[in-house]
Amino acid sequence: MKRPFRFAFAIFGGLILLLTAQTPKAKSVEQTLRASRWQKRVLLLAAPNAGQADFKQQKALLAAAEPELAARDVLVLEVLYNQLTEADKQFLTRKLGLQPPLFAALLIGKDGGVKQQSSRPIPPADLFDTVDKMPMRREELRRTRPGQR
């Protein structure tokens, strides 16, 4: 009676090891931004932790605007300082000018440049206004709606 249990456990244990071995390593912030270049605009939300008031407010504002974010190719990247590697923290401070542990919202264009930065939540209308003024966004709209400007 014990033998079938051991057999099932051994198979189950093997599956756990197999699944664990196939789990991809999380990308660094820099790798994520590099992979998004020319593909997505990135709205990077940085906060000390998920309970921070501005972070929660920004997420709530964006929740109602998901279709508009998708239409503008915006990837929302949540960055919590208390979960970052030292390399990620250095990248954020040196390359993006963030000041941990303060909240920050950065809109990064498809070209990799910072287009908008705020230490307060950004209303979606302001975010979309910034995106819609970008030359690349205007070109995208021309391609999808021929004859319109």
SSE blueprint:
Elements (H helix, E strand, L loop, with lengths): L1 H21 L6 H8 L4 E7 L5 H11 L2 H6 L2 E7 L5 H9 L9 E5 L5 E5 L5 H9 L2 H10 L5
Pfam families: DUF4174
InterPro entries: DUF4174
Protein name: DUF4174 domain-containing protein
Could you explain how this protein is built, in words?
This is DUF4174 domain-containing protein. InterPro entries: DUF4174 (IPR025232). It comes from Hymenobacter antarcticus. Residues 33-140 form the DUF4174 domain. This protein has 149 residues and is α+β, with helices and mostly antiparallel strands. The chain has one domain (29-144): Glutaredoxin (3-Layer(aba) Sandwich). The chain is 50% helix and 16% strand. It contains seven helices and four strands. It has a four-stranded mixed sheet, with helices on both faces. The chain is globular and about 50 Å long. The termini are far apart.
Sheet of most strands: 4 strands, mixed
Mean pLDDT: 85
What is the gyration radius calculated from CA atoms?
21 Å
Low-confidence stretches: 1-23
CATH topology tier name: Glutaredoxin
The percent range for helix content is: 40-55%
Which class in CATH terms? Alpha Beta
Shape: globular
CATH architecture: 3-Layer(aba) Sandwich
Structural class estimated from helices and strands: alpha+beta
Individual helix count: 7
Number of strands: 4
Organism: Hymenobacter antarcticus
Protein name: DUF4174 domain-containing protein
Keywords: Signal
InterPro entries: DUF4174 (IPR025232)
